[in-house]
Amino acid sequence: MAAASCVLCAQPIGAGNSYCPSCGVLLPPTESTVDPLIGTVVADRYEILALISAGGMGRVYRAEQKMLERMVAIKIIDPRAMRVNQTSELTSRFMTEARAASRLNHPNVVSVFDFGRTSPAEHAPLFLAMELLSGPTLADVLASTERRMPLTRVASILRQTLAALGEAHHLGITHRDIKPSNIVLQKRARGDADHVSVIDFGVARIGSERGVTEQGRLLGTPHYMAPEAITANGAGPSVDLYAVGVILFEMLTGRVPFDDASAMTICLNHTSAPRPDPRAIVHDLPDALAEVCFRALAVDPEARYSDAQALAEAISEAVAAPMTRKQASVFPPRNAAKEAPTLPKANPSGEFADESPSMRILARKPPTFDTAATPVVGREEPLQWARDLLARPCDVSAIAFWGKTGTGRSRMLHEVSSIARANDAEVVELGVEWGPRYEVGYTALRELVARLAGHAVDDPRLIAGHASDEGLVSTGLRELFGTPGTTLADEPGAMRSAVMAAFTWSARRAAKRVGERLVLVVVDNVDRIDGISRACLWDFLKGGVLPSVVVLLALEERPPSASHGGIHEREIFGLSRIDASALVSGSRNADRESSPDSQAARRVEPLYLEQYRRWRSERPRDRAPTGLREIVEARLQELEPAPRRVLQALAVGGAIAADEVAALLDRHDGVEEAIRTLSDAGFVVVSADAGTKVRVVHALYARVALDNAPAGVIEQLHARAAEVLATSSADIERRAYHRIRTRPNLETFMLVERTVRLRTLRGDDDGAIVALSDGYFVARTSAARGDADGHGWQVFGRKLAAALQRAGRADQANGVLREILESLGPTDPARVPVLEDLASIARARGKPEEAERWRREATQVPEAARPSARISRLSRGPAVASMRPAGARRKS
Fold it and tell me: Which residues are catalytic?
């Protein structure tokens, strides 16, 4: 029987393998009769669903990104197009395309989410995951219509195209192949009948990077090529503007300026022939528009328009139609030089004469759209349930509301807290906002302990003046509020009991301070607090009921300690259609008898209703998307470039000041106005607390902003955040969090190792596993892009498997090691230690036959391929050698 071959790379596949060892494609359970890739999973995360188009260099498919459950377009280079003497050039060109496109962050540029090889294998096929577009190309529209395109539509399409090119040129990127088939027209934007997306920066060239094609070889389409691109005298932004001039001529006349059966003749005409007059074809064409064509098609680049914005303005003025959006909002500043933000100056009295950017935004008139007075509808039963529990605090340690995003968990906490305050309870609140500061251990616990003890977080009396006769409590307080790491013991988790003692001490102190009154400790978004704080919170609740102290929680999933007698939990669902209608109408009374309500009925999230009300106020004639994520995504897609960039910066940096937002973006123009726009739209809020910070209102907005941002943009934001927001040498975890999300280097992985060790010593095994998972994924992705050592990800994978095994998650450890093994060739030196690890895990899982099979396979690896003992020890690594199971849940 002939050996099976991979449908992607045509390499042989061993019997029983579900992955191709060469390219990493996950094989489908059955063969496809349409396309061999349909049904496969490439790069471990994209399931191929349908073929969109095919070309000489590869194919484009519709695929599902499984983790985010969203549709993307994925371009895969066809292995049949990869000749031996072209492989290096093809790979270099592809990576240039991906890196260039992934840096572009503009509504009129298709977003590139991911790229690289389908596996870390050296000759694995290449892929590019992009935003999935729906709509015809400009070439399709021009070919299908016999009528002249209205001049206002011409101006709108080219204005958006030039806005995209202006952004690219601002970043030093030249498209070099602008043509109608690379301009996709969608029906999406409010202000434009056509929403333009420029695609395929496949021959882009960044700044002064060395070209990756052979000298003299033409890159582009002859009909749209500028003279300087043909003569190889230059290939800067002017070639893109010339191509737009050709497209303008074609849109006005229905034909290109130069056409011939010979590509060489076309090129010769571009370099020397007289420019045709579009008025000779369209007699009633305005003279001003003909003049724009002549100037845009000048042979000498210096005789053309200076930049994309100048050309767009000339077209608009010639058409004599008002622009649908302000020019300043779609084009970057013409002067590329960036000015540093000016800091407020102090007057002689020591007070600042000028307000900070955040204070100026805070002082403005609030937006007219107000959701604060939204009535509570359909929550009578769970509120009564919570009220009854608060009436008998001696039997209750915690009240937990959990449920999906947008169901109103935070609102429930607010209402219950109001009930408690009305009954004279002492309420201690910890509102957890979106942001990376909760990557740092003890962040949430430090705030809780300080507030319960009646002090500010930076109050030195927390260490010096309390619990001097209680050694364990004193040690825990010094660990929480002293110099980070100075009290850490050598044994894993040794400080956890001391920190827990400090937490319990602060709760008792709060109870003593208020006497007979109730102390309600409110913690919102428990899922997002740092791992050790969350672990200590669960330990505190498991310890039993503390009289007069009740913890009120909100989280996405059911609490892991819900089986404990003192912990009472309630899942929160969306609203019924009747209650939703009442909320939209603003009425507290609904006719609930008109339609029976049931758990099976379709429910609506209150957050969706808020988004729906905003949608109707912004777009009263347009039908709103029916899903919560979809409506948020649609509203974010309507944002102009500046607000979109600011929201992405806040999603990366968390709650930060306006000048820090500008520092992350490295663009100081328009930040304040963008924050105002986002505030009016309900996406961000400016608070005077903690030094006037700007924060994203809901975690979903931040997640959607990041999920739809180009990969290179997110990398750049995290790189800036590591420099601007995490400068302290003690801030290891936050620096590691940001660095691992950039293009990593050796220092990055050393930071991850230090983070793993620090979390392990604290007893935060769950957090250590998260850090190792990040390192494993990023190392593998970097290897697939050719940015890192091809075997570094295997080292992280083995360490991750070891940590999972120690945490009692042997099945997951086995899965990680199997994933590594299936990517290794039969003579790869790294195969032996992985097989040994698999045998060890099989023994731990009580499967001796499987363990023996792995051991025998390890002995069959050729002796010459076996790694030295030193390499084997290094691959195991010391970072997680002392980890022990803690039973903590993995941080989501």
Answer: 177
